[in-house]
Amino acid sequence: MFVRQYRPTFFEGFENWEGQVNSWPELVALKWVENFATQPKFHRFSLHRHYYDEPDEKNWHHLMAEYNEGREWWIVANLIGTDSELEALRILPEWEPKEEVMPVPLPPNYL
């Protein structure tokens, strides 16, 4: 699957990491992904899934980092691939907002 690091558009002067990974362990081993899990009140990673109607089309999902028992969240990455390429991510729970709140501030070592 193709992975693109996510940063809000107001961040300037940074290059988002882009590359291919083949598994969940490979994805979570990326330092910038791992950093989200080391922050206080980290709850879990989850997926905000987006599908196209045709099974062979490339789908894209947001990898989410949830904090404070899921009441706060941050988009970590865009994940793009076919159903078979994204199969390894089926272990992750479906993301859904728990409350109407703002995402958490960026982790200190995010940049």
Written overview of the protein:
It is built from two helices and five strands; from the N terminus they run ββααβββ. It has 111 residues and is mainly beta. It has one domain (2-91). A hairpin with an 8-residue loop joins strand 3 (42-50) and strand 4 (59-67). The longest helix is centred in the N-terminal third of the chain and has 7 residues, at 31-37. The chain starts with a strand and ends in a 30-residue tail after the last strand. 18% of the residues are buried. The mean pLDDT is 85.
Give the helices and strands, then pairings.
Elements: E1 2-5, E2 18-20, H1 24-28, H2 31-37, E3 42-50, E4 59-67, E5 72-81
Antiparallel strand pairs: 1-2, 1-5, 3-4, 4-5
Shape: globular
**Average pLDDT for all residues:** 85
Spatial sequence of strands, sheet with the most strands: 2-1-5-4-3
Distance from N terminus to C terminus (CA atoms, Å) equals 24 Å
Helix count, DSSP H or I runs of 4 or more residues = 2
Tell me about the biggest sheet?
Answer: 5 strands, antiparallel
Q: Give Rg in angstroms.
A: 14 Å
SSE order: EEHHEEE
Classify the helix fraction into a percent range.
10-25%
Number of domains: 1
Give the beta-strand count: 5
* Proportion in β-strands: 25-35%
- Indicate the structural class: mainly beta
Low-confidence stretches: none
